[in-house]
Amino acid sequence: xxxxxxxxxxxITKTGKRxxxxxxxTKGHDRMYWYRQDPGLGLxxxxxxFDVKDINKxxxxxxxxxxxxxxxxxxxxxxxxxxxxxxxxFCATSDTGRLAGGNEQFFGPGTRLTVL
Amino acid sequence: xxxxxxxxxxxxxxxxxxVAFNCTYSNSASQSFFWYRQDCRKEPKxxxxxxxxxxxxxxxxxxxxxxxxxxxxxIRDSKLSDSATYLCVVNSPGGGNKLTFGTGxxxxxxx
Lengths: 116, 111
Hints:
The structure holds two protein chains of two kinds. Chain A is an all-beta fold. Helices cover 0% and strands 55% of the residues of chain A. Chain B is an all-beta fold. Chain B has no helices and eleven strands. In chain B, strands 2, 4, 5, 9, 10 and 11 form a six-stranded mixed beta sheet that branches. A five-stranded antiparallel beta sheet of chain B has the order 1-3-8-7-6, with no helix packed on it. The N and C termini of chain B lie far apart (37 Å). Classes of the chains: A mainly beta, B mainly beta.
């Protein structure tokens, strides 16, 4: 079984609709992240959470919100989807950083979202 | 200037060739450096961490030059299965484990 899972894997929706992407992990990690990937722009951080009570904005949080329901679950919401939110979305987890620079991040398989 | 810059490629090389990828980063306070591999339409996976002394893992060698803020990845004896996009990744200073990803360099190994 995969350690980091994302649902749905693919979603097509219309402008203005509310969408929720879900992420679950069985790695026991405290830290979870949401990224989007666009051609030519690489991975960009949307939100991150270092534990259940901690939520932080990333580089491109406008138009998105998150919820950390439990250590193992971190969901990303688009309250009113727009076409430029069409992208590949990845959830990732990492263990608590023992070094100042931090540790490896483990990624889910991704959700391909298309907003028409 | 981008925080992490890579040549996007693609690098098309014959099987058995040696290929090198370079990456530069802008923040001199960065402390952790990685190479991730991403296959088409798949999630990124850690290939190797990069240490100041340089490190090797089989056919892969990573080096870091802090003075020049430059990271490299060398792949020897390229295999068809090495075809992928290689992402240069640097931690974002300021605490925690936030990473900044380069846009990736695409490698195509051909017969």
